[in-house]
Design a protein that fits this description.
alpha/beta; 7-stranded mixed β-sheet; 4-stranded mixed β-sheet; globular
């Protein structure tokens, strides 16, 4: 059995425990229809309609979140503010909205195609702000890197004449939307975390739970900057959930 097949088998087993047999069957049937180009919708009991794209990373992300339950261990009492930086097509926010329907969500996504899917998938989320842009250390204009890897792995950079992406810092985001405290901050921004955590990180004092995927394989120094910045702002509980590092400062 190949590594890929083993991973899919484990996802199916995880989903049986998480979602039950019938819901897992519906999800797998949806996967089959999408792969054959017969549908672009995955349905389940908890998510009646999730739009995905064929031949992209969408199904893999869906599998991680709704079958493997990658974010299930993230729990917090009655969160008011949840930020999804690198929101992609909105699947993390959908998962958190299942658990915390009364939270306010702020979703940041700089890629146009992803943002369009994000807007459609989160139509059911009542309290949200969708932000077309990229998280960075300062508010400035950025551009996509030429070594982008599609809808899942694109990267942004500064210093390019074709800069067309509006970037905002955490300070700017919090000031603009009058956010005093962040209950859950999820960051998955394909190496840009190195820049975000390089300076101007006092906002960490206002974050209860940080969930972040670091990408040293794309850009060396990401983990060093993340751990270095967090270590300056008091004690935290550290754990790993799937591909994510979880820092709990409650």
């Amino acid at each position: 059995m190949t590594k890929g097949n083993l991973g899919r088998l484990m996802s199916m087993v995880n989903s049986f425990h998480r979602n039950g047999f019938l819901d897992t069957f519906k999800i797998l049937l949806g996967f089959a229809f999408v792969k054959k180009g017969m549908s672009n919708v995955i349905t389940s009991k908890s998510n009646p309609k999730v739009l995905v794209r064929r031949n992209t990373s969408d199904l893999a992300v869906y599998r991680q979140i709704f079958m493997d339950g990658e974010y299930d261990l993230i729990t917090i009492d009655d969160p008011k503010v949840i930020i999804d930086a690198g929101a992609n097509i909105g699947l993390f926010t959908l998962a958190m909205n299942q658990k915390y329907p009364n939270a306010k969500f702020y979703c940041i996504e700089p890629m146009k195609d992803n943002f369009g899917m994000l807007s459609k998938n989160l139509a059911c989320v009542e309290s949200k702000d969708l932000i077309f842009g990229a998280l960075w250390s300062d508010s400035e204009q950025l551009s996509f890197k030429e070594d982008a890897m599609g809808q899942w792995g694109f990267r942004v950079q500064r210093g390019n004449n074709d800069a067309s992406i509006s970037a905002l810092s955490m300070d700017n985001l919090m000031n603009q939307y009058k956010i005093a405290e962040i209950d859950i901050l999820k960051i998955d921004i394909e190496g840009s975390e190195k820049e975000v955590f390089s300076k101007n990180t006092d906002w960490l004092n206002n974050v209860k739970v940080l969930v972040i995927e670091v990408h040293d394989y794309l850009l060396e120094g990401c983990a060093q900057n993340v751990f270095g910045a967090i270590g300056r702002y008091g004690d935290y509980k550290f754990s790993i959930s799937g591909e994510n590092l979880v820092f709990d400062r409650r």
